[in-house]
Amino acid sequence: MSIVLAIFVGEILLVKVFKFDKTFERALITMMILPPPFIMPLFIKEENQKDMQFVLNTLSLHTLISLIVFTVIFSVFFTF
Questions:
Q1: 4 plus 23 within the same structural domain
Q2: Residue 17 in 3-state DSSP?
Q3: pTM of the shown model
Q4: Alpha helix segments (H runs only) across 9-48
Q5: How far is CA 72 from CA 17, 49, 57, in A?
Q6: How many CA atoms lie within 13 A of 6 on its CB side?
Q7: 57 and 19 share one domain
Q8: pLDDT by 10s per residue, the chain, length 80
Q9: Domain, as residue range, for 62
Q10: Torsion sign, CA atoms 32, 33, 35, 37
């Protein structure tokens, strides 16, 4: 959902309304695709190993998905 919103906002607001370069649209889409911050596991107490594993696995999975989505979107929709 955030990717669709980023494409819409980037194309309509940044490029057509504010007359920014397409680079700003690409930057917005890249920012929306990025995984959550990796500092989150530092806030989990060591006693909660189950929660720690869940967060680490989720971050790893989100990173892989982000790489795939980034590659697909930028190879299909944008030319440099």
A1: yes
A2: helix
A3: 0.75
A4: 22-33
A5: 27, 35, 23
A6: 17
A7: no
A8: 777 888 888 888 888 899 988 888 888 888 888 888 989 889 999 899 999 999 999 999 999 999 999 999 889 887 76
A9: 36-80
A10: negative
- Whether residue 50 sits in one domain with residue 28: no
Both tokens of 53, joined, read: 């594993």
**CB proximity list for 34: less than 8 A, separation 6 or greater:** 66
- The HSE-up count of residue 73 (CA atoms within 13 Å, CB side) is 18
The phi, psi pair for 37, rounded to 5°, reads -65, 145
Closest CA to 73 of 37, 35, 30: 30
Q: Map tokens 């940044």 to a residue.
A: 14
Shared domain for 42 and 26, answered yes or no, is no
Residues 78 and 45 in one domain: yes
What one-letter code names the amino acid at 10? Answer: G
The number of domains in the chain is 2
Q: What pLDDT, on the 0 to 100 scale, is given for residue 80? A: 62
